[in-house]
Design brief:
single chain; 158 residues; mainly beta; 4-stranded antiparallel sheet; 11 strands; 45% strand; globular
């Protein structure tokens, strides 16, 4: 009788463990004009194994009115590393404007607000790139940043 209880407990524990899986890639949250979307990376690389994966379908889409800001929230896995935000705009006449890029290196910043420069400008793309710094030789003087993950939001004018 005691043995059957032990077997039942182990079987239940095995089912619980089997139901658990490693967490998926980190998601970035975009909020604008009353709508929120969480997206996974469109590209993701593991620098320890050299294995990369791509999922272009992971890009998010939001309808946003001209002149409206987009708030971005990154998870801890991103905030604790260097990351870059790139924002593409068009002006009120639909002409592309220079990209706006900000590099975040504080390792404790979880949010960013992308605001168009003028009230009739339209944000069209917001991308987040997570980076790591590596050296092929081990010498810190030749270290270079590489992108390890990329998230993308495509904006449709509302």
């Amino acid at each position: 009788m005691r043995r059957s209880r032990v077997v039942a407990v182990l079987a239940a524990g095995g089912l619980a463990v089997a139901g658990c899986s490693a967490p998926g890639p980190a998601e970035v949250t975009f909020y604008a004009d009353g709508h929120t979307i969480r997206v996974g990376p469109i590209g993701n690389c593991d620098v320890t194994t050299g294995v990369c994966s791509a999922d272009p379908g992971a890009a998010g889409t939001l309808k946003v009115r001209p002149g409206r800001s987009i708030q971005v929230s990154v998870p801890k896995e991103v905030a604790e590393t260097p990351w870059k935000i790139t924002v593409q705009y068009v002006n009120g006449e639909g002409r592309p404007q220079p990209l706006k890029e900000d590099i975040i290196t504080s390792r404790d910043r979880y949010a960013y607000t992308a605001a168009p420069p003028a009230k009739d400008d339209q944000i069209v793309v917001v991308e987040i790139a997570q980076a790591t710094v590596i050296s092929r030789t081990g010498d810190p003087n030749d270290a270079e940043p590489i992108t390890t993950a990329l998230w993308s939001l495509q904006v449709r004018p509302a």
